Amino acid sequence: MMIPLFESIVNGWWQGIVLTLIVWLALRDARRISAATKVAVWQTTLLIVILLPAIQRIPLSIAAFEDAAPASVPPASLAPAAPIPNQPAAPRTMVELREEAWAPIVALCVLVAAVQLLRLAFGYLAVRRLKRKSTSLDVPLPASIGRPVALLASDRIAMPMAVGYREPAIILPRAMTLQLTDGDTRHILLHESAHLLRRDDWMALSERLVRAVFFWQPAVHWICRQIEREREIACDDWVVAQSGEAKPYAEALAHLAALGSQGYVPMLATGAGRPKQIFERLEKLLDRTRNRVPQVSGTMVLAVALALLFLVSQGAAFSRLLGFERYSSSWVEHDNDHRRALKLRGEMRLTANDRDVETISPGGKLLIERRDGWRARTVELEADENGKIVRRYFVDGIARPWGVDAQRYLATSLQSWSREQGWKIPERTAGLLQEHGVSGSIEEIRTIRSSGTRREYLEELINQAQMSDAQMRGTLRAARDLGSDEDKRRFLERVGARYAERGMDLDAMDLVDSIQSHEDRHRLLERALDRPLSGVRMARFARSVRLLHSDAMKAELLARAAAENPGPMPAAFDEAVASIHSEKERERLRLTPAHP
Predict the structure, then answer these.
(1) Average pLDDT over all residues of the chain
(2) 68 in helix, strand or coil?
(3) ∠ at Cα 554 (548, 559), nearest 5°?
(4) Under DSSP, is residue 116 helix (H, G, I), strand (E, B) or coil?
(5) What's the CA gap between 76 and 269, in Å, rounded?
């Protein structure tokens, strides 16, 4: 399972680059979006990029871009389809791994990731050593951070910085503490406090871990650099919001840049940055047209996340690159990790056995996809302007030659689809009877997922087959498994007379009781009154009536049953009457011949 997962991850790298480019273009000149919001947007983008292979496995159906009316499919020709020569599959992925290359590539990537993680471990130890060798400063922090923070001085660093994690600290260069004014020191401490208040130490650690594991993805490194850049600007905005003016803080940053140098900076530290970065931030700080709000816009982040997820759903390996394909009909079903989809644009004609496609209208396309967990198989049949069909086959996003496996997958999918859609039910039912017999046909029909199609097959089977009583009862048991009350009702309305002819109307009443809809059950009980009821049949009818919730329905059916079937009533009839709570309806029943 690791190899398909690895292939899926590698083949998604170009989509991550495209998504990153889209976000960068959207945020590049967006002055109305604050730096804090941009940080959150980039972090959301980073999460989507690294989870891209998993997100693409989620069943997403964009119905708004599909025509509501189903495509018309002409009846299949009785002539067999001509043999289809193998056609080379058009490559759809930018990275394709051969089986013999999997093991060394996986081993190399694991080795590089391990080295990167080891560097992070040494970086963490360097941060702890730096804090341990620094000395405390007796200077109060200018803002409350919400967790204990140590203020330290060190001779080993050239610029102020904030370091975490469970024991966070702000470290200032010892020489710089003697050269900065009190106002400058306060502003610098505010900036470093903002990092710890925003939990940037933990976020930076998470981003470093992502960069170590996804070292092969250039989009990840680009996003992380954008986060670092916007994070510093967001902290600058927070300082201005606390101090009330931008100019004094800008002067403090300029003084800091003049004093600073390119000294030692731990890998996992966050802080004021290098002098070159400070001059870039000064330009942003003094820009009055920019949004300086230090809070994150949750609405904006949510909108970006939904937009990116939508693009991912449309940029799967088997559809056009971040575009839309228009289909005239679509059939999708999914269950946990399993998903099947068949989409059609235009018209197509199947062969007589429904195992292949004979023709597709010019410009039309058939797409069949099946996903089982991380495994995926897809067939694409596309007709050019002359109606010539080009066949493509993909396994886990990798183009494969059109061969026996592709033909078998296409045949199985088409037969399953045509069966679920209810095509040629009389012919298919006759074939089932010939191949499996009555009992085997019932079991085959029970495997059909569509409740409506299953009902139509059962009705056709009852009309075609010569059944024993046991087999007739088997059809009733299959009908009880129908997923729709309407399908159960329509089934009994259409073939219920067959059970009555065989003296099995009592067995059919069990199917009536399985219906949850009281309206549908009431309609069937009304139909039961079209035949005489006496003795056991009347008792069984009364027990079904008793299950209704409506007193009016109960009284109506019982009154009609008593009027149309005069004579002594069984005890079940009296129990059904006693279940009526409405005095008005019970009084109505006392006037019937059964209750003078």
Answers:
(1) 81
(2) coil
(3) 155
(4) helix
(5) 69
129-156 mean pLDDT:
88
pLDDT digits (tens, 9 = 90+) for 327-336: 667 777 776 6
- CA–CA gap between residue 499 and residue 505 (Å, rounded): 6
Tell me 594's DSSP state: T
CB contact at 8 A, 199 and 110: no
What is the per-residue pLDDT for 59? 45
Q: What percent of the chain has pLDDT over 90?
A: 29
Distance in angstroms (rounded) separating the CA atoms of residues 251 and 287: 15
Instruction: Say whether pLDDT at 592 is over 80.
Output: no
Residue ranges covered by each domain of the chain:
61-94+327-423, 99-298, 425-515, 529-596
Please, what is the end-to-end C-alpha distance for the chain in angstroms? 76
Q: Can you tell me which residue has the tokens 């009526």?
A: 580
Residue 177: CB partners within 8 Å, gap ≥ 6?
A: 137, 153, 185
Strand partners, 135: 153
CA dist 128 to 119, 125, 152, 168, 174, Å? 14, 5, 13, 10, 18
Main-chain dihedrals φ then ψ at residue 129, nearest 5 degrees: -65, -40
Residue scoring higher pLDDT (449 or 209): 209
* CB within 8 Å of 396: residues ≥ 6 apart: 4, 7, 8, 374, 375, 376, 377
**Long-range contacts of residues 528-537, Cβ cutoff 8 Å, at least 24 apart:** 529/557, 529/560, 529/561, 529/564, 531/500, 531/505, 532/564, 532/565, 533/561, 533/564, 533/565, 534/565, 534/567, 535/570, 536/506, 537/505, 537/506
Alpha carbon 346 to its chain's center: 27
Cα–Cα separations (whole angstroms), residue 595 to 525, 538, 544, 554, 589:
21, 15, 20, 15, 7
Which residues, 6 or more positions from 424, have their beta carbon under 8 angstroms from its beta carbon? 76, 354, 418
Q: At what angle do helices 404-421 and 451-464 cross, to 10 degrees?
A: 80
Q: Are 557 and 545 in contact (CB under 8 A)?
A: yes
152 close to 136: Cβ distance less than 8 angstroms: yes
DSSP character string of 235-251: HHHHHHHHHS-SHHHHH
Which amino acid is located at 502 in the chain? R
| Long-range contacts of residues 99-102, Cβ cutoff 8 Å, at least 24 apart | 102/3, 102/6, 102/7
CB of 389 closer than 8 Å to CB of 358? no
Q: Are strands 169-173 and 150-154 parallel, antiparallel or unpaired?
A: parallel
Nearest to 525 by CA among 536, 575, 484, 540: 540
Please report the DSSP string for 497-531 in residue order: HHHHHTT-HHHHHHHHHT---HHHHHHHHHHHTTS
- pTM here? 0.50
Residue 94's pLDDT is 36
Over 60: is that where the pLDDT of 398 sits?
A: yes
* pLDDT tens-digit series, residues 57-104: 554 433 333 333 333 333 333 333 333 333 333 333 333 344 445 567
